[in-house]
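Hi support team,

I submitted a single chain yesterday and got back a structure, but I'm not sure I'm reading the token output correctly. Could someone confirm the output below corresponds to the sequence I sent? I've pasted both exactly as they appear in my results page.

Thanks,
R.
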Amino acid sequence: MKLVRYNQLNPAYPSAVSSMLDKFFSDSFGPVAKSFNPAVDISEDEKAYDIQLSVPGAKKENFKIELVDGTLTISGERKWEEKKEGKNYHSVESQYGSFSRSFFLPDDAQSEGIEASYEDGILKVIVPKAEKKIAKSVIEVK
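Hi R., thanks for writing in. Yes, this is the structure output for that exact sequence:
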């Protein structure tokens, strides 16, 4: 069985030029990239902001999370570990290298109580919200 790269323009058969260019760049530079941007999902509920980065295959020791002046910066690295053992790679589409993503936190985000966890290739950072203060007061007439 021979692996054939999918051609978006014509899925019935691969493009010779596309395959030739892919092979040239794969053989010349290999799968190691210097940097990449992992996919990020951000959501919120009434209690917290939930930031999730997709970094499968990374190790939790390789992440660094910093909060400076209201900017949350998440950085890390996913290293390529080539294990040949009789394997010839035909295609490597996974991303490797270092990354850094920064997020400006809203005014209601609390710097205390930020939690981070890494499970199943997803780095999850929970930023709690400050409790809403009720802007109501009674003014006494004198």
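A quick pointer for reading it: The radius of gyration is 23 Å. Let us know if anything else looks off.

Best,
Support desk
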